[in-house]
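User: Please predict structures.

Assistant: First:
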Amino acid sequence: MEAALYWSTIPNIVFNAVLCFTALTLNGATIYALRKTPSVPKPLKALLLSLAVSDLGVGILSHPLFITRLALELRLQADLLTSLPTFYWVSLFLTFQFTYASFFGILSLSLDRFLAIHLHLRYQELVTYQRVVTSVISVWVLSGLNSLIWLIRFRIAYVLFAITVVSCFVVSGVLNSKIYATVRRHAHQIHSLQVQPTVQENAPNVSNASMLRKSTFMTIHIYVLFLVCHLPLVCTLGLISFYPGVAVLKAVKIYTLTLVFLNSSLNPLIYCWKLRGVRQTIMTTLLHASSSQN
């Protein structure tokens, strides 16, 4: 094993061991808090739970498999595709299952908030909880089918993954840009309502608009974080396809994979930051747990 690969493998094993713990605990707490928080609308809650479950899956499976893969490659001094093909393909399938679920989850969340902003009263009529649950199930089934293609037709799967990545990045980016522009315009309207003498009459509308604005800004933050964590890996894979023999790029790929997995530990922090109900539920649970121990 080249020196660059060796000295990138050791710290990434340590990083992923730490991130495995944070992904498990933070996403587990987030799933519990989302289920116990009635203030979050049910369609939005279903989408956030789906995203949190995929992040939890990263902690349960992707992190341990990645750590095992790095340790085995370090020990065997060989590529697992030739030395342990079964482990390699199972690891690849499970990793892409959660990766696709995250990509489609971000896209679904961006589309939901876009519709919430632009449909107004028609949103509750068209975007029902049952339809959102159906779309969430479809996302996971589609993710599994796309991941299965990696085991059957590697080249087709590679092209399909590239198309999926570009499409999700671009479409989610356009949706979030329109969301941001609309939310900023609504913010000025809310401010004008607050300074009017009839503020008491407009208070419910202002409150609902404020809650919608916070959830849309949360979606924008989730998308930006997703972009920051995944784009370096996409660029690195593109460079490796043109320069496959460069050892430094292979070492960089290990760090960019860890950055992708880091995303699963950071998403719960955004939920707690932007959703006060989720934050309060987690704090209440922690206080009860600490008081029961005392």
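Second:
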Amino acid sequence: MNRVTLVLTTALAPIAWGTTYLVTTELLPAGHPLFAGLLRSLPAGLLAVAISRRLPHGSWWWKSFALGALNIAAFFPLLFLAAERLPGGVAAAVAGAQPLIVLALGALVLHERIRPITAVAALAGAGGVALVVLGPAAELDLWGVLAALGGVTATGVGMILTKRWGRPAGVGPVAYAGWQLSAGGLMLLPLTLFAEGVPQEIDGGAALGYLWLATAGGIVAYTLWFRGIQQLPVIAPGLLALLSPIVATVLGLAVAGERFTALQALGFVLTLGALVLGQVVTRPKAQTDRRPQESLDDVLSAPR
């Protein structure tokens, strides 16, 4: 798989995640972020493990739970909480801070050199986020912003650890995603049952929303995302995460009737420019996973 194809398929993940905010506010029952995270992770994770027929082994048991805690158990509830308390474009735009987090952690943990042009792209993305968030005060909520920042910080750390630990030999991306989704879902299960409970009513729209989040936003997105993290320079997927606020913003404007000020529109343009600049200037480095690249179809059809 060439770099362009890898970038494009990896980009499908944040594009799918950008729909989360609209789905949450328009389809899902309010006040149940833990339940939403549980249904998005555990069924999809168990299905992925069943399809791949691979379980973690050795140290990968605790590594899977550590990654599942960061990428799933912490991120999902914070994501849905932010989506409930903030307008979709504002909530997703906070994800634009992730490139700065990934850039700093990549230098500290992975000892990757920070290129000036990459730092400019990350700073431009963060600046664009700040401008987008500076909307009318009535549309902002402190806890919503903190939840969104906490979510992207957790996934930023998870991204760095995913890059550092790689993927076990002989384990495909579907199984790898399934381990983390299952681990995160198992952590959310007792919290959901004892702290939040199940919504009193789940109508057809909510059922459709949960199904979309578990499939397109769950097993498919995370399979492509984790593969991209392991094969691209760490800042590249970090900048691709900016697609999430872009998609959420467009959906908010087109479907939910949200309105942006001129200052927020400038922030949107800066965010988009940072995404494009970052993908142009990043170059592939030595790959940590040197096995031939495998497509999702290859993984699902491979003999076990």
